Amino acid sequence: MIKYPMVDLVGQYRKIEHEVDAAIGEVLNSAAFINGPAVKTFQKNLEEYLDIKHVIPCGNGTDALQVALMALGLQPGDEVITTSFTFIATAEVIALLKLTPVLVDVDPDTFNIAPKAIEQAITPKTKAIIPVHLFGQCADMHAIKEIAKKHNLYVVEDTAQAIGAEYTCYNSGNVKKAGTIGDIGCTSFFPSKNLGCYGDGGAIFTDNDELAEQMRAIVNHGMKVRYYHDYIGVNSRLDSIQAAVLDIKLKHLDEYNTARHQAANYYNQAFADNPKIKTPVTASFTNHVFHQYTLVLKDVDREGLMKHLAEKGIASAVYYPVPLHMQKAYIDPRYKEGDFPVTEALSKSVLSLPIHTELTEEMQKEITEAVLEFVG
Ligand SMILES: *Cc1c(COP(=O)(O)O)cnc(C)c1O
Fold it and tell me: What pTM value is reported for the model?
């Protein structure tokens, strides 16, 4: 029996139950299920929260990435650079659009895409870079944007794991929210994300009016005027019930991220003196919203530790056990085992512990003691 799961969405719901039930009831009573007022309200509030001109709600985070790439007018064979250490969706949409995913290795401390590796992967066919703000902290966006400017590339941020994270540019000192730094930002509202709904949902962010207009059309069958189709589009909408839930949770997002941060601090302190455990390293230019709390284990039997924790009712998980270039569907003669040594080493040594808004110190005490009991 799992006593301490990776996330506790029921516990979180209990605290906002009345508000959420009333908001869902309102949608049910209006029957405005698609593109209803709840979607417009959430869109506006998220634009304000992120300080961005345009939020385009859509069906999920994977669609957000796909629609962003569709709007950039890339041609089959164009190359898109992304990280080898991410959830599959990032590379999946590149492949689906018959573009060529070009993978690069990550920084061993932050797990985020390494700017130097991006530069080395650029060819005349490169058109865009997709940095992923993995586990809740921003990639090195200043360096990435400099590379993009130099080579005339688009930057599409995958901010599915970092909504609410703040990035401070070490050049200008400007502070921006994750997902509003590049040309387009894409996020997911999958239930377990830091801002999650009660089904599927996603959104695209941009300050660019033209791209916004186009993406707003693409998510709705490529139409601006009903039944007049200017683009080949998709059907990818955020429904009103999800928007109503998200609008309530958005008000709590900063408080949720603070709770995650506090939980991370507890773990950091508990593991600080253990030479076999490397706790998360946050880069100086970003804060960390800890979508995941991920350790790097040294000389620890990871499967044994997971089993030990499971026996005590404590969940743990490996994000991600197989690097993209070694996934069956993505086997490619351009890549072989050994090409991305940091990613490959991480995939064998990372372990994520439960992190969410409902953790108490008592729970964390039990979890950390169980980890240390095994690790020694
Ligand atoms: C969750 C996630 C996605 C996909 O989001 P969905 O809403 O599940 O489609 C994309 N990229 C990253 C990094 C994610 O964590």
Answer: 0.97
